[in-house]
Write a structure and sequence with these properties.
Layout lengths: L1 H6 L2 E7 L6 H10 L9 H6 L6 H11 L6 H17 L2 E8 L1 H5 L5 H19 L2 E9 L4 H11 L8 E5 L11 H9 L3 E6 L5 H9 L5 E4 L7 H10 L3 E3 L1 H6 L11 H6 L4 E3 L4 H4 L3 H12 L3 H14 L4 H18 L1
Parallel strand pairs: 1-2, 2-3, 3-4, 4-5, 5-6, 6-7, 7-8
Helix pairs in contact: 5-7, 8-9, 16-17
Bound molecules: hypoxanthine and zinc ion.
Hypoxanthine (HPA) binds next to helix 4.
Length: 335
């Protein structure tokens, strides 16, 4: 089973690139940029990763991101994630980035974007890994700040097909960003949003009705509203679920309590993703391994989850079909 999980060609649809900053790279970049960190060692950083909820994680996540200063830093961060993708047979990835985390510190949007994007281009050359960028607005900041960020992104529109919504969910419902998302869709962006992670099912409805999202990020609290579940099943609106994240941020008490298998059995288009792999104890393969053993997933369940992620990807239909064919060839080779 472990080899099957590692080798099956995968897509990842929910990964924050700033959340892939491993403590080793955090220290290396701090040294390179003459920044002092409030930790004595890499082990001390890892020891600090004990979270009570989303906010307690976000506080450390934004602090860690402060070591990212130059285009090369963003390149190195992204390249390190893509090396993991290559090792774990991730064939396609859709990556969130949080420009406001950096522009608020005086780092130009272009520095962030160019560093990340160059690494994506190089990974496509080197490994054939395809990727898309998703610009996330920080929902704890104002709608005006989000709108200004959208305007900064317009010159790079051809390389950023989608916008999303992340950060502190409770108290910052999707409606707060309705006008920003109206403008984004008018400019041709697709939309996604984090909803139903800590927030209620109502936020998922808002994301669908007001932001017209193509996917819901997390969405595990949809089960609190049977009508919503029916709607998500009928339309096959994908949920990008992040099991290890949900346990680390106390959305579920343990991986055995996670509702992923239940969501799958309901016929929802659920996918498995890592969210912030450096902070939550693993990349996509470790997420699959954790849910497989805790929830007793079969080979067929794993196949369905992986297939869902290619189906839910924003790839053009010919490229999507090529990835699905690659998946079916893999299945034929192992059965
Ligand atoms: N939820 C909301 N915002 C985030 C997350 C998350 O899981 N990870 C990084 N930003
Ligand atoms: Zn997330």
């Amino acid at each position: 089973m472990d080899a099957f999980i590692r080798d099956i060609p995968k897509a990842e649809l929910h990964i924050h690139i700033e959340g892939s900053l491993e403590p080793e790279l955090m220290f290396a970049l701090a040294q390179r940029n003459n920044i002092s960190l409030p930790y004595s060692s890499v082990d001390a950083v890892r020891a600090a990763y004990q979270f009570e909820n989303l906010q307690s994680f976000l506080d450390l996540y934004y602090a860690g991101a402060a070591v990212l200063q130059t285009e090369q830093d963003f390149y190195d961060l992204t390249w390190a994630y893509l090396e993991r993708c290559a090792a774990q047979n991730v064939r396609h990835t859709e990556i969130f980035f949080d420009p406001q985390t950096h522009t608020e510190r005086g780092i130009p949007f272009e520095t962030v974007h160019t560093g990340i994007y160059r690494a994506l281009e190089d990974a496509k050359q080197q490994w054939g890994i395809t990727s898309y960028l998703i610009l996330c607005f920080l929902r704890h900041l104002s709608a005006e700040s989000a709108m200004a960020t959208l305007e900064q992104a317009l010159p790079f529109k051809s390389t950023i097909p989608t916008v999303g919504l992340d950060s502190s969910e409770l108290g910052h419902p999707p409606v707060k960003f309705q006008q920003v998302f109206d403008r984004a869709r008018a400019e041709g962006f697709l939309t996604v949003a984090h909803a139903g992670e800590e927030g209620p099912a109502e936020y998922i409805w808002e994301a669908i009705r007001l932001l017209e999202v193509s996917r819901i990020d997390h969405g595990v609290r949809c089960v609190e509203d049977p009508q919503l579940v029916d709607y998500l099943v009928q339309r096959q609106i994908p949920l990008t679920v992040c099991p290890l994240s949900n346990v680390r941020l106390c959305v579920f008490d343990s991986i055995q309590q996670h509702n992923l298998k239940h969501l799958l059995d309901l016929g929802l288009c659920v996918t498995v993703n890592s969210d912030d792999p450096a902070y939550f104890g693993g990349y996509i393969t470790e997420n699959f391994e954790a849910v497989q053993s805790a929830l007793h997933l079969s080979h067929q369940d794993i196949y369905q989850l992986v297939k869902n992620s290619f189906t839910a990807a924003f790839l053009p239909s010919d490229e999507k079909q090529a990835r699905l064919d690659e998946l079916d060839q893999f299945m034929a080779s192992v059965t």
